[in-house]
Amino acid sequence: MNKNTILVTVAALVGLGLGATVMRDQVPVSLAQQTGSTAKSTAAAAASAVQKEAGARLQNETNTIDIVKRYEPGLVYISTEQTVQADPYAQMMFGQGGAQVQEGVGSGFFVNAAGDILTNYHVVQDADKITIRVQNQTKTYAATVIGRAPQYDLALIRSSTLPKNLIRPIPLGDSSALAVGQKAIAMGAPFGFDFSVTEGIVSSTQRRIPIGFSTNGQGINQNAIQTDAAINPGNSGGPLLNSAGQVIGINTQIISPSGSQSGTGQSAGVGFAIPINAAKTLLPRLQAAKGGVVTAPVLGITAGLIGFQNGAGGTQQIAVGLGELRDEAKQQYKLPNSGLVIATVLPNTPASRAGLKGGTSTQQFQGGQISLGGDVITKVNGQPIDTLEDLQSYLIDKRQGDTITLTVVRGGKSRNVKVTLDASAFSN
């Protein structure tokens, strides 16, 4: 921080302090111009008004205060450390060698009496050391990852040394029952200010944005809750509560126009939370993961349109959709304008039981290859798709036993195929 920044900060703090003093005094200027009984009467009336105002709380304020008192002890402050090896080139040329430790902070909350803590995957991603602290405690406790779900940006952690009396689960609500305009309370550690609370409303219940991390690094579109409750870096993984004190979402992302300029994100009144129903569906699998990775349900297919890219590590293969293929090529191979080409169908999977078919031949072209002769998935439940990520986005909130309808094109002919997600879709 430079000298000018320090001066501006001090000035801002002083200004706020002076403002608080003036507001606290509550002395009308007109009293200085009054004398005798009139002044005394006006002063008494002003004092009475102040007392009444101080003693009267709005119903919304009372509700918020009650929720914070009851459930903020279930909030968890998370600190992480990651050892990063120095750049060998920088070490050789500039003498900047050795490993460096990167620190991070985030939030989480207890979901059960066993001490399981739900947070964002990106909060604990690649962390070598995780410590937690609960409200009104100075002692920190080591924690380990029980399960990771990168595609959902969710993770479950637990501390084996945390005293049982410090575990305060927050009840989980029903995000499917949300209404736009209802109250939303965000808890977390914005910018490292642990155990902070902000309030707003639910701005949207069906905002589809890229959340989580797919195998090729692209986000997977899924439904999110939009809120104007202030969410900032450090709030990640913290709970979003309703007026009943139930968790309705897990704070995960913000839109920050200033962040795109400065590289440091900050709230612009548009924040997003992962619906709690998605997390509730995932919890049993996270608890049984034994530190491993939990993925979205799968159909048992591989993508059949592959693009080749040259990178630092050599040639990389990336699955793409038909929308990336030239029109001339699609016409030549009698393919639809967009869709997910199937290369192979794995045995004993939902796809094989539904009768989907993989390619029978492979055609090489400049920059990639394509499987021909099999099925191309163009829609899921009537919604167009083009890539594997598109397909995953429609599977991500599905449960065992759910059935989806695929629109499939083979040999220029379109048909609908029903696929049931059995146990094999959740084999991980």
TrEMBL record:
One of its GO terms (molecular function) is peptidase activity. Coiled coil: none annotated. InterPro entries: Chloro_Bact_Ser_Proteases (IPR051201), PDZ (IPR001478), PDZ_sf (IPR036034), Peptidase_S1_PA (IPR009003), Peptidase_S1_PA_chymotrypsin (IPR043504), Peptidase_S1C (IPR001940). Residues 305-412 form the PDZ domain. One of its GO terms (biological process) is proteolysis. Its EC number is 3.4.21.-. Keywords: Hydrolase, Protease. PANTHER family: PEPTIDASE S12 (PTHR43343), PROTEASE DO-LIKE 8, CHLOROPLASTIC (PTHR43343:SF3). Belongs to the peptidase S1C family. This is S1C family serine protease.
